[in-house]
Amino acid sequence: MINHDRLQNKLTILADAAKYDVSCSSSGGKRDNKGGLGNASKSGICHTYTEDGRCVSLLKILLSNHCIYDCAYCVSRSSNDVERAAFTVEEVVALTINFYRRNYIEGLFLSSGIFKNPDHTMSRMILIAKKLREEENFHGYIHLKTIPKAAPELIREAGLYADRLSINMEIPTPSGLAKLAPEKDHQDMIAPMKTVRDEIVALKDMRKTIKSTPKFAPAGQSTQLIVGATAETDRQIIDVANNCYKKLQLKRVYYSGYVPVLEDSRLPAIGTAVPQVREHRLYQADWLMRFYGFQADEILDRQSPFLDLDIDPKLAWALRHRHQFPIHIQYAPLEMILRVPGIGSKSAHKIVAARRNERLTLEHIRKMGAAVNRAKYFIITNEHNPHLHQLDDLDLKQRLATGSHSKYKQALSGQMPLFT
Ligand code: SF4
C-alpha cells in the first residue's frame, strides 16, 4: 500500500535533485505499441525545458539522492547536508503509470545517486524499467542513466528496456575530474559508453539476419558536460564532444553551465553567474559539427581556444575566412551555402532545390527562411547587392553583433572572467 504523503515528499526531494541534469531530451525514440499502454515516437515527445533545466514532458527523478561518492559539483554528494530520500521500485513504477494515465508525462527519465554500490543501484533501475515494460506493458519513453562502474552485463540488460541510455561525463577532462571527483575516473564513463556503442552495433547487425533480435537502446546514448566548474577551454570541450560523436557514436552531447550552489574552494563561489552565453555558444558549435559539416578544429584553433561570446561560431568562422566569400548563391556547392551566416540547414537545402528553376534574389532566400540581414554580406545573388562591398569592413563584426537579437545577450556571465 503506497503512503501518498510520503510519496509526495519523496517526489519533491528527488525531482528537485534531478533538475541539474539537462541530458533528458527524448528525440529519436521509437517503440511500437502492440496492444499495451503508451507510445514513444519521434514526434510524440515534447522537448520543452523549464528555465532551471527540468524537462517537462518526462517524469524526471532520481531513484535516490543518497550517494556514497562525494563529487564536488553535485548536490547529492555525500558530504552535502541535504534531505535524503529514496523511492522503492514499486513507487517509481506506480508514479510513472499514474502520471502517464493522467497525461502529465510521456515517459520516464530516471537517474540516481549511488547507494550501496554501482551494481546494486543499476540493478534497481533495471528492475523498474523491466517492471514497466513486462508487467505494466508500458510502451512510453524510458531514459535510464547508467551508473559509472556498473558491470557491463547490467548495462547490456538496461539497454533492452530503455529507449535511451546515458552516462554523464560531467567534467570534460581527466584532470578536471580528478580535482572535483577523485573517486571517479574518466574511464569509468568511457567504458560503459563503449559497451553501449558495441551492443547497439552488434544487435543492429544481428537484426539484419534474425528479425526477432531485441532492440537495444533504440534512441542511442547521450552525455552531459558541465561547463565552467573547471578551467577547460571551449576547444577542449568541443574536442571531447567530437570524440563522443565520432568514436563513441553518441546521439547527443548536452552542455550545462555550472550552477554554483555549493560551497567548495575548488569551485566558483556561490553567487557566481551561470555561464549561459558560453553554454549557448557551445550548443551552436555542436550544431555546426553535427549538421553543418564543420570539423572541431575549424570552429576553434589552439591559439584562440574560446568561442566568441559576442557572435555565434558560424559567423565567427565566416569573418575569419572572408577570403572564401562572397559565394554565388546560384552555383556554390551546398557545403558552402551551409557556411553562410544567416542561412540555416533547411534554407540551404531549399536554396539548392529552388535554384534549379529560378534565378535567386535576396528576397527569394528571405522567403525561404534565411536571415538576410546577415547573409547579404556574404553572397552574390542575381541582382545588384549593395552590401557586398562591406564584406571587408573592419567593423562588420560589430555591426552584425549589434544587429543580432539573442535572448542570451543580457545574460553575460560573471564566471567568464575566470578564463580571460
Ligand atoms: S556519483 Fe553522481 S550522484 Fe553521486 S556525488 Fe557523484 S555526480 Fe553526484
Question: What does the model show?
Answer:
- The chain is built from 15 helices and eight strands.
- It is an alpha/beta fold and 420 residues long.
- Strand 3, helix 4 and strand 4 form a beta-alpha-beta unit.
- The protein is globular, with a radius of gyration of 24 Å.
- It binds iron/sulfur cluster (SF4).
- Iron/sulfur cluster binds next to loops.
Strand content: 5-15%
Helix content: 25-40%
Shape designation: globular
**Which segments are poorly predicted (pLDDT under 50) over 5 or more consecutive residues?**
41-54, 407-420
Number of helices: 15
- Indicate the radius of gyration in whole angstroms: 24 Å
For the terminal residues, how far apart are their CA atoms? 57 Å
What's the quick description here?
By secondary structure, this protein is an alpha/beta fold. It is 38% helix and 8% strand.
Looking at this protein, list some descriptive labels:
single chain, 420 residues, alpha/beta, two-stranded parallel sheet, 15 helices, 8 strands, 8% strand, disordered C terminus, binds iron/sulfur cluster
